[in-house]
Amino acid sequence: MRLVKCLCLAMLLLLAVPAVAQEAEPRYFSFLDEIAANPGAGSHTVTADRFIAAQGTLHDSLHDYALPVVSLGPRTEVTVPVTVDQEGWYQISVDYYLPEPGINEAYLSVRVNGEFPFYEARNAPLYAIWEDESRDYAHDSYGNELPANPVPVRKWQTTVLNSESFALSQGLFFPLRAGENTITLTTNNLPVDLGMVTVAVLPQPPAYDAYRAQVAAQPAPQDALVTVQGEHYASKNHSYTFAYSSSNPNLTPYVAGRRMINSLSWGSWYAPGEGVTYQFEVPADGDYQITFKSTQPSKNDFPVFKQIFLDGGTPFAQMEAATFPYTGEDRFVNTTLSADGQPALFSLTKGTHTLTLMSTAQPVYGWYGRLLDVMGSMTDTALEIRMISGGSVDRHRDWAIEEYMPGIADRLNAQADELEAILNGLRAFSEVEPALLAPVRVSVTRLRDFSQDPDKLVNSLAVYSEGSSSFAGQIATLLTDMLHQNMGIDCLYIHTPQAVLPQPMLAFGPAAAEAVKSFFYSFGERSSADQQQSEEGVLNIWMGRNINYVEQLRTFIDQEFTPRTGIRVQLSSMPDEAKLLLAVSAGLGPDVVLSGSNFRPFDFALRGALLDLRQFDDFGEFIKVFNSETLVPYVINDACYGLPETLSFQALFYRKDVLAKLGLSVPETWDEVTAMLPTLERYGMSFGTQLASAGSFKHFGVTIPFIQQFGGKIYADDGSRVELGDPRTLQAFQLMTDLYTKYSLPQTIASFYASFRYGTMPIGMSGSDTYILLREAAPELAEQWAIAPCVGVRDESGQVRRYQMASSTSCFIMGNTDMPDEAWALMKWWLSTETQAKFGQTVRLVYGPEFLWNTANLEAFRLGSGYDEDALAVITEQFAQIKEIPRNPAYFSVERELSNAWNKVVLQGQPYRTAIDAAITQSNRVIARKLKEFGYMDEAGQMVRPFVPVDGSIIDGWKEAVKP
């Protein structure tokens, strides 16, 4: 009987499980043993005149490079023919020049004999060189120093192609066969000039003992001590590695009551491959030690690793991954570079030298790969269990999972054994058990418990593989922690062993005295967030963003706007928009507001508090850089009271790996979504919607797109009532509710990002925040996810309406300003293509790749958004289908009643038509009251003047018309 049951089950599995798509290339770590056993031999150099470049341009020389050069445009490939005598694994070095270093990194993908040998070959970084614009730091209005802007240094460089994610100390090795080979190099979306390419097994640095045997011992002058400030780096290879401004008395320089640029920021310098270079002068030939006054506050009881280059090369093997211990927060220690447990001596000659520190994950690379394998095994196990159980949790049902998944207990034990081996390997990097390993150690114990009784696992998948606190979630967190190598530097010392170094921290007495002094200074300062009444003749601007953005814009204004126009500006931060309402009521408001909420202009304009921007002659010409729909929220009849500043895109996120395993394609319409739901649900998965992510209140951003995609109406043509009873609107509302009542989509999603990351919701719609989180905080999903335009409704012509709202922040001019022309000049300058593109690039260069500026100026968005080319194409396509809802004096009531109707149908089981009728009645009642309040309707309920709902077509006409 059991045999028959198992045979039937096997047939069921064959029918139910689609063929698994071909896996991507294996990871590099799976070849480590083979690389060590089969090194190549010899060095083979190929100059650019021997390259096979169908699209590149060959130059005899370029940028002072003495040999031939091939210039490659974006997404252009060149093939390098190489002949080697011996089969084996070789490193590839390239000479390169970046003609357009900017916010995006340059990469080469590497195919050997037509194929990618491993996954990491798809993205080998070519780093730019950056330096600070000046060490004469600018100051904010309170005397605090501000970080300098980065500027690119254009010069030829040589690099060994390496892994983007790990910065392996010896670079990547590529397999070549004996005889002729081809190496095809393809650029990403940045141009690259290539010089010669060298294929070789490069000499490795000697061990410390061998290094010391090669140099003659030569004591340096006694007590020699050279100090280099951490913030005074000569160059860096990422623009957003920056010097930090603080008022910490333990750092130098220090001025009580002021923030000074006095260290290299630990928060901006952590990803493998990020490096900084210092220059220093040695007073005499001799042997020196190198000590860093540094902080490492992020990895409790676990070191970070930095590869040390001295004058361009790693002096000995122990410097391929120098360790820096955990220090705790706000604590600096002196760490001397060491070898074999003893301070290392470096042989230096008199004169100038360079010292480079590059973050590396080399020591933990193998363990990282093994963790990825365990996580993949857990994901596959969970997927099989979901297929059998349907993903349902039934505590009253008994399972015999071993009959359906023979060997599952052994599989769980194997996962626990492997995790334990990995943890013991990582444990060797610390004298005590690191805190970051503790959660995974607990997971090992729980895995062994489940292996004793696998039936319990069926109802415990949330503990096993779903969410940040699950076993898989703990592994994912550990993977991220292993990669990050945060370290801040106050200064570094090049010194003799006899030199006495300054103490890294003040003693208790002096530290307490400085704390008291800072406390009293704080009473004399005013917060940079306070808004002040502007003096006469000065344009008063409030910006609703944090101080970093405000200071960056202030610099732009001081350097560009005021010199160009002669208009003086006072810029303040507005962290709480409620202050704006109070200030306007008191007559103390600003002239212009930047980065305001998208609904605020309508509310203020309805009450006569804003300036109509259409009064300016060049308004129609200027707004051509915006999608007309993005102006809809700021329009009342034929007047426009604001302009869009930024947009928040929506997109369809999908897991390429999961959809491939399930045999599913990316849907375009809601019909295709409902068609794929049975397959997803069979595996205990589902589709994520914005409605479920919105919480209990379903705002316009998640309800109106359904109505617009079906071509439905929200308001009557004269604005006097809602038209939620329109047949197409009812059709949209029925789908909005059927998704949760008929198709059983989850009604709430606590975190789409978490559900997506751990595979329980491998597809769904979300916004730009999810994009940033996945790109920056989910390294284990690299190349396993992508975005597509939002799903929608196919119209009669066969086109898919993918309408989504996008307006995020706004800019507007207060109606009582004494400087309307100056305010308009400021707004035009701020929202112009040049300024928006430069601001977006600068913010990302200074603060990092996660600071994406989604400007509403579409020309500027294409120039400086910071998205990769594939994502940019999707976002641009989705932006073309922006559809905003026109405002109505009672929009808040319509929004609330539409949300209430959804809740009544989905949560309370009411018929959808009954719920909509109630929403219509209540909305119309409030609309009538508000229209009477603002003089659009008389007391008899007759429209005195229409309140016309506008759409993008009306604004299109403004772009073509001369000032009315």
Question: Can you give keywords for this protein?
Answer:
single chain; 964 residues; alpha+beta; 7-stranded antiparallel sheet; 5-stranded antiparallel sheet; 29 helices; 34% helix; 21% strand
Describe the structure.
There is one protein chain. The chain contains 29 helices and 40 strands. It is globular. It is of the alpha+beta class and 964 residues long.
Short précis:
The protein has 964 residues and is α+β, with helices and mostly antiparallel strands. The protein is 34% helix and 21% strand. The chain is globular and about 105 Å long.
Given as residue ranges, the uncertain stretches (5+ residues, pLDDT < 50) are: 1-23, 525-533
Strand content: 15-25%
What is the SS-derived class?
alpha+beta
Helical run tally: 29
> Whole-number radius of gyration?
31 Å
Estimate the global geometry from the Cα principal axes.
Answer: globular
Biggest sheet character: 7 strands, antiparallel
Distance between the termini: 87 Å
The helix fraction, in percent, is 25-40%
Mean pLDDT: 89
How many beta-strand segments?
40
List the helices and strands and how they pair.
Layout: H1 2-16, H2 32-37, E1 43-46, E2 57-59, E3 69-72, E4 77-84, E5 88-97, E6 106-112, E7 124-126, E8 129-132, E9 150-153, E10 157-160, E11 173-176, E12 179-187, E13 192-200, H3 208-214, E14 225-229, E15 235-236, E16 243-246, E17 260-264, E18 275-282, E19 286-295, E20 304-310, E21 322-324, E22 333-336, E23 338-339, E24 342-343, E25 346-348, E26 351-359, H4 365-389, H5 401-404, H6 408-427, H7 438-452, H8 455-458, H9 461-465, H10 471-483, E27 488-495, H11 508-522, E28 539-543, H12 547-565, E29 569-573, H13 578-585, E30 592-597, H14 600-606, H15 619-622, E31 635-636, E32 639-640, E33 643-647, E34 650-655, H16 656-662, H17 670-682, E35 687-688, H18 690-693, H19 700-709, H20 727-741, H21 752-757, E36 763-767, H22 768-777, E37 785-788, E38 793-794, E39 800-801, E40 807-813, H23 820-831, H24 833-847, H25 858-864, H26 869-879, H27 891-908, H28 912-933, H29 952-960
Parallel strand pairs: 28-29, 28-30, 35-36
Antiparallel strand pairs: 1-13, 2-3, 3-13, 4-12, 5-10, 5-11, 5-13, 6-7, 6-12, 8-9, 14-27, 15-18, 16-17, 18-26, 19-22, 19-25, 19-27, 20-21, 20-26, 23-24, 30-40, 31-32, 33-40, 34-36, 34-37, 38-39
Helix pairs in contact: 4-6, 4-10, 6-7, 7-10, 19-20, 24-25, 27-28
